[in-house]
Write a structure and sequence with these properties.
By secondary structure, the protein is of the alpha+beta class. Helices cover 43% and strands 15% of the residues. It has a six-stranded antiparallel beta sheet with strand order 2-3-1-9-8-10. A six-stranded antiparallel beta sheet has the order 4-5-6-7-11-12.
Length: 627
């Protein structure tokens, strides 16, 4: 894995500010501690930090192709590069065993069309001097990040992380109010927006073409498709499921550096470990757990490690893990309110002591319908189909407004959010299902001036717009499509990338192999979710390997026990808010409302842990971004 940075003159061939590029590249040293490189030409420059995984002696970047003097700066892995190299050797004498060279020569010959032949994860910049064209691209599922911005004086700056763009000194860093609203709704800022005005993330499965004197061209080259058509019998599909994951895992185990796996107590990572065991070789697995037994999956992970003969390394995310808040905020460069970033950071830290590359179970919930919200959404859709919107607004809207928020009650009695969802369209209801905070609580803690600046903007529109793009009427497929386009790249893969690369650890998710994703999209929805059983085909396919008892166990989740942590007398993350002036002076919050929320949570009257965590992480972002 690596970090890339670059500056391109959109207006001419002015000399590039070398100090600015040096600062950008230095900001990415954690992504590539094994070396750095630069390329400078009139009006264009690349910086690169390398984490050497394949052909550690070769593949140094920026890489100069033999063809047409083209130059590549690249972050990622191309898993099928050896197959591509075999088809290329008749035309070019390849000098290395690296995927970098194959990618550079392929792009030099075929341009952006070569992307369709790639199987892997990547974000790259590619300069074609003969065409005076800069090509940026990001992989299909958004595993590798790429930020960019146009400066007021006509430069395009881009980098693997927000911090590198900020360190360039070339961009404005004023907050985008709509992005702030998105953050407090979803817990992250969905692509292509970032927390700053005028700074963007290149969306997954998109290219950006920059040519002097022309507007930027941003185009998609792939999208998930759900056909729900003819499929093999379920038992045959299970056999194919095993074969396809085994093949994806085997392909992603290529490495000249030590390799292992993240292992939780869930079927996703356990299935990946089982496939790794079949591929052969020494097996290393890393797990993180919690002091609180109800949140600790180490015993289940230990069972899988023993079953497949893995060397198993465990660590604990104790309450004092909250001391990591500022390090985590700095790693993201934007506010990020997924509390599971804490254990993710710690498991990456533990894993890096033993391996340089780790395979993960990321993507299983999105691709095979594992989220608890999916069956609830399907049930809501049936009720929506039975009654017109106006009637539902009258009945359920009123019920949602009157029904109390029973944080203390058993889950079956917490009807408030369900009533509210039923009073909305399907897309708006699903947006509410993926929201990290209750909108009314967020509205209470944000001040009036900030809310007026939104001019009626509703973050739920993000999900509604994406769901309308899905070429299917199947409600599960529409929900999965929305998650693959928003939640997966914006939240789940961002979390994995930043927490792992903070420790110079490369993480690969075989369940997101795009061939496997396309195959899963062709399966009937009932193969994934049936009578409330989630990830049906994945569980059935790997039950013979993992054991029926393991498959049947209730997953405990990877999130820390925030509710309990925020009621403790020591090492309480909320104490940060009491001591900080940054969030109070930001001009965004109703201070008294936040203070009331703190008291309500600590007294046990309400569970406001997630809303408070969102404020804590926003405050940490303000602190780290001001340095």
């Amino acid at each position: 894995m690596c970090g890339i940075a670059g500056i391109f003159d959109l207006n001419g061939v002015r000399e590039i500010d070398r100090a600015a590029l040096q600062r950008m590249t230095n900001a990415l040293i954690h992504r590539g501690p094994d070396g750095e490189g630069y390329y400078f030409a009139p009006g264009v420059a690349f910086g690169h930090r390398r984490l050497a995984i394949i052909d550690r002696a070769g593949g140094v970047q920026p890489y100069h192709a033999q063809t047409r003097d083209c130059v590549l700066s690249y972050n990622g892995e191309i898993y099928n590069y050896e197959d591509l190299a075999r088809g290329m050797r008749a035309d070019v004498n390849l000098k290395t065993r690296s995927d970098t060279e194959v990618l550079a020569e392929g792009l030099a010959r075929k341009g952006a069309d070569f992307i369709h032949e790639l199987r892997g994860m990547f974000a790259f910049s590619f300069w074609s001097p003969g065409d005076n064209r800069l090509l940026l691209a990001r992989d299909r599922l958004g595993e590798r990040p790429l930020y960019y911005a146009q400066t007021a004086d006509g430069y395009l700056v881009f980098a693997s992380e927000m911090g590198a763009l900020v360190d360039s000194g070339m961009i404005e860093t004023s907050l985008d109010p709509r992005a702030v609203a998105d953050y407090f709704y979803y817990g992250y800022t969905p692509d292509p927006k970032t927390i700053y005005r005028g700074v963007y993330k290149l969306p997954a499965a998109h290219t950006l073409i920059a040519e002097r004197g022309r507007a930027l061209r941003i185009e998609p080259y792939w999208r998930p498709v759900f056909t729900n058509g003819a499929a093999p019998a379920f038992e045959d599909a299970c056999a194919l499921m095993r074969e396809r994951l085994d093949e994806a895992v085997s392909g992603q185990m290529m490495s000249d550096a030590p390799l292992g796996a993240f292992l939780s107590g869930g079927v996703d990572s356990a299935s990946v470990v089982s496939s790794m065991a079949r591929a052969g070789g020494d097996l290393i697995a890393c797990t993180v757990g919690f002091d609180e037994e109800t949140h600790d999956e180490r015993p289940a992970a230990r069972e899988i490690a023993e079953k497949f003969g893995a060397a198993h390394y465990e660590s604990t995310a104790a309450c004092d893990a909250a001391a990591l808040i500022e390090r985590i905020a700095a790693a993201f460069g934007e506010p990020f309110a997924d509390s599971s970033s804490l254990p993710a950071f710690l498991v990456a830290q533990n894993a890096r002591r033993h391996v340089t590359v780790a395979l993960s179970g990321d993507g299983g919930d999105e691709i095979f319908a594992g989220y608890r919200r999916y069956p609830f959404y399907l049930g809501e859709e049936k009720l929506r189909a039975a009654a017109p919107l106006l009637l539902r607004q009258m009945v359920f809207g009123t019920a949602g407004a009157l029904y109390p928020k029973l944080d203390w009650a058993p889950k079956p009695l917490r009807f408030k959010t369900t009533f509210q969802a039923l009073a909305q369209t399907g897309a708006a209801g699903y947006a509410a299902a993926v929201a990290i905070n209750l909108p009314e609580r967020v509205s209470a803690i944000l001040n009036s001036d900030f809310k007026r600046s939104l001019d009626g903007y509703n973050p739920a529109m993000v999900i509604a717009g994406v769901m309308d793009e899905a070429d299917t009427d199947d409600p599960l497929a529409r929900a999965q499509y929305a998650d693959i386009k928003t939640w997966l790249p914006g939240r789940m893969l961002t979390k994995t990338d930043r927490t792992s690369m903070a420790h110079s650890l490369e993480v690969r998710p075989p369940l997101l192999d795009h061939k496997l994703v396309e195959w899963a999209g062709s399966l009937p929805s009932a193969y994934k979710l049936n009578d409330g059983e989630r990830k049906r085909i994945l569980k059935a396919a790997f039950a013979p390997r993992l054991g029926e008892e393991f498959i049947a166990r209730k997953k405990q989740g990877f999130a820390p026990p925030l509710t309990q942590w925020m009621r403790r007398e020591r090492n309480n993350p909320v104490f940060r808010l009491n001591a900080s002036r940054r969030w109070r002076e930001s001009g965004l919050f109703n201070e008294r409302a936040v203070d009331r929320m703190i008291r309500a949570h600590q007294s046990g009257r309400s569970d406001c842990a997630q809303e408070l965590w969102s404020v804590i992480m926003f405050d940490a972002f303000l602190k780290t971004s001001a340095r």
